[in-house]
Design goal:
The complex is a heterodimer of chains A (110) and B (116).
Chain A (H helix, E strand, L loop, with lengths): L3 E4 L2 E4 L5 E7 L6 E7 L3 E10 L2 E4 L6 E7 L2 E6 L8 E9 L2 E4 L3 E5 L1
Parallel strand pairs in A: 2-11
Antiparallel strand pairs in A: 1-3, 3-8, 4-5, 4-9, 5-6, 7-8, 9-10, 9-11
Chain B lengths: L3 E2 L4 E5 L4 E3 L2 E2 L6 E7 L6 E6 L5 E3 L5 E5 L4 E6 L8 E8 L10 E2 L3 E6 L1
Parallel strand pairs in B: 2-12
Antiparallel strand pairs in B: 1-4, 3-9, 5-6, 5-10, 7-8, 8-9, 10-11, 10-12
Classes of the chains: A mainly beta (110), B mainly beta (116).
Chain lengths: 110, 116
């Protein structure tokens, strides 16, 4: 399973509150990714990282920020959560040009 | 930007029926192609991938896919489905030439239900 964990696995929060999701990997992979999964849209890339403190935007980055202060951790922050950010969030790593996914975090914004 | 289309959003089959799920992409150059499966309540798992070479790729659990460059397609097939194949299937494309981040573009997914 590529040694990826995500926390929390489920979270319910209220509109306007900040939320941070954590992705942790144990195998020293350089590339890490955050996606959101919504019905009919497949997975859409939010942000990705190509090293410590090196990040870039993906297709749907508005309203999200990321940080990577250590190789093993990639954090996704919703500065002020909105109902449109209710989704399932998946972290992924890249190994041999192939992405492998974590178990996901189900986030509900009320 | 490239796009990926999975035209069948929902497919219902009986056990032992043959499966073919369509995937078309829009980019005309070299691509890397992937199929992922997501069982209910679980994360995405890699079924198979194509980078180069034989366009007929075999993956896990009896799945295979054929890359047809002239049709910009990478359809997923299985000769005989089982109830345990009930899942959502995602096609994904990577364009290696302009993609320092190894980013993928996903199709919208196809939900397969296999009736026992």
């Amino acid at each position: 399973d590529a040694g990826i964990t995500q926390s929390p696995r489920h979270k319910v929060t209220e509109t306007g509150t900040p939320v941070t999701l954590r992705c942790h990997q144990t195998e020293n992979h350089r590339y890490m990714y955050w996606y959101r999964q919504d019905p009919g849209h497949g997975l859409r890339l939010i942000h990705y990282s190509y090293g410590v403190k090196d990040t870039d935007k993906g297709e749907v980055s508005d309203g999200y920020s990321v940080s990577r202060s250590k190789t093993e951790d990639f954090l996704l922050t919703l500065e002020s959560a909105t109902s449109s950010q209710t989704s399932v969030y998946f972290c992924a790593i890249s190994e041999s040009y192939t992405q492998y996914f974590g178990p996901g975090t189900r986030l509900t914004v009320l | 930007a490239q796009s990926v289309s999975q035209h069948n959003h929902h497919v219902i089959l009986s056990e032992a029926a043959s499966l073919e799920l369509g995937c078309n992409y829009s980019y005309g150059g070299t691509v890397n192609l992937f199929w992922y499966v997501q069982y209910p309540g679980q994360h995405l798992q890699l079924l198979l991938k194509y980078f180069s070479g034989d366009p007929l790729v075999k993956g896990i659990k009896g799945f295979e896919a054929e890359f047809i460059k002239s049709k910009f397609s990478f359809n997923l097939r299985k000769p005989s489905v089982q109830w345990s194949d009930t899942a959502e299937y995602f096609c994904a494309v990577k364009v290696p030439s302009n993609n320092a981040g190894n980013m993928l573009t996903f199709g919208g997914g196809t939900r397969l239900m296999v009736k026992p």
